[in-house]
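Q: How would the structure tokens look for this protein?
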Amino acid sequence: MCGISGYFARESKPNKGILRGLFEEGSKRGTDGFGWVLIHRKQCISHRKYKGLPDFRDVLHGMPVTLELGDIILSNSRAAPETESAVNESKLEQTVQPVILDDQGLYLVHNGSCSNFIVNELKKKYTFQTDIDSEAILWAYIKFGRNMQEAMEYLSGGFAFLMMDTIKNKLFAVTTHNPLYTGYVRGHGLFFSSTEEGVLQTVSKLKGVTINKNTLTVWEDYYIHQISENTIQEIDLDSGMVNEYKFEPRYVTSTYDCYNKEMNDKPVVLVASSGGLDSSTTLAALKEAEMNPVAVHFKYGHRGQEAEEIAIREVVKLLDIPLYTFNISENMKILDSGMLTDKDAKIITGTDAGLKTTAAWTVYRNHLFMTYMGALAESLIMKDNYSQVFLTGGFMNLSESGSYPDNSERFIDAAMKFFKFSITGTRLRPLYGMCNILKTEQYVLLNELGWLEKLSPWLVSCDRPITQAVIAEHWGDSNRIPLNCSKDGKPACGSGLLSYWAAKMAGVPDLRRYYNVNDPEYKAFEPNSSLSVKDINVDHIISRIMIPEKYLEILRNKVHNCKNVGS
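A: Here is the predicted structure in token form.
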């Protein structure tokens, strides 16, 4: 809603020309009015406000002839929103920022808005000096004894602001989702802008060369960065110490307001689940670790849709965990015609040339899965006020992350950045789970937890599985257990081969059912070396599972209890 800037001349007298660049860059985000305030030695020296955008050369001439070491200059180019009073020539103090409370030692420039219900609540106790909702920030800060974190978790709206507290001699740079950039040049000082270009231009002028990125060195001569979302930077002007801490923003809907509600600290993990080895092992391990997994299954029009749905329903029934199913098959018909979604496409993953490729890629499949799970997480948080909900999937495993970009830790991290910009996004957490665990080790873990014999017959690890119901017409068999593809005595696809080899190397039985495919194009692929049983220590597997330590310890104890019972 506005463009803001700030400059702290910490290490030398400021050059007025530097201020002009910051002012001009801020004016790109607001043209209704402009104002600045100059603070020196913990007191306001002068300030001025204008209707519309003035000539910034005249603005600089109107400032004190000589700026001093330690000066702080805050400015605002206002874009008056439709929900507030327009800039009024006769009421500039009430309709243009900065918001100044001299008797409280507080000075503010703000980009964003504060919700009306907050403004109305604060007006019952405090006398507002302006017609601008931004003033609520200052009164909330006072209300909570000058504790900025408590103030920000009470306020509701959108915020990027700079605030000087001359009593504490601290400068605050705070943002929720609105842009706010900061920069520093050694020998000069610290500055802020609503735009990255504003900081880049300032650094360039101070350095005398064009700077278009931040180049980190061992000893920083300058830096440029965007202040992260939902972050408070508290800069102590006496010591130069910067304390940075997060806060939970308060977004309010007709059915949800997190403020003054006791949080539910029960852990919940949403797991993208197909009914295969990876997701089923993840579900079983999280169940034993008492992290309350919830299976989230997706029907996306692939050839194994019926088999996988049967498999996941049986898996969650055995594990006694909840299941949510989303049908996105009609949407995927528009988006994809790949090996998994086109029933006439050749299965090439079981061949030497097709293995260790992205041949089974389905456009944005895991991206869509994560988006739906993010929405489900938000729904659960809004309903039961969970303090955090973890997100993971069977796609988080070491065997397949070597080829697929959406099976990596970077992928789930990227999704978390996206989720932060939702109503409850600060409560969503990534769970890397089995990201360090091979399929062989998953079989060992299932076996040690006592789940192998129960779950293995139902696991679908296949690029073209079917159910016995499909071939009942020929065999007269009404059992609907899923069948994995095979040819020449072993799986006929890459997914099946990986789990087939994994079971052999783990020294455990593969209890899945198979059907024989008639595929003249298929060329059986075996590893170059003969398979041998690996000597795998289950404690070593558990130590590499990426879940919080207290739950890892619960899982470790469950495994040892199973061993003791078995012995």
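The CA atoms of residues 379 and 551 lie 25 Å apart.

The first strand starts at residue 2 and ends at 8.

Upvote if useful.
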